[in-house]
Specification:
Length: about 130
Amino acid sequence: MKTEIRTVQQNLEAHLKAASSGKALGDSIRIHQVADPVDMTREAADRDVAVQILDRESKLVRRLRLAMDRVKDGSYGLCLQCEDEIAPKRLKAIPWAELCIHCQEEADNLVSHRVRMLDSEHWTEAA
């Protein structure tokens, strides 16, 4: 069991190291003055992409650190919602998983429903 936990910790640390490599992207979000409007547009688009990547990486880093905390406190592998065990296959695929597949599907459906509701409100207001 201790070797399993150590393997999980090493796996999470490896993912954390890979996800934390976005420091070079920080330079790409700096605004550089260029004279050509086409270059300005391209650089703005590149900055937007870099910001999205940094945002995704920071969320992953946060999830990885929380997973490492759960390893330390002994709650790793338990669903944060229903407290059932998360399937080993799921943890192998997504070592930072916080929810079992059933609770994750419910969470995804709720988010999807909220997005649809916001979209319908937006279209109603626009009409």
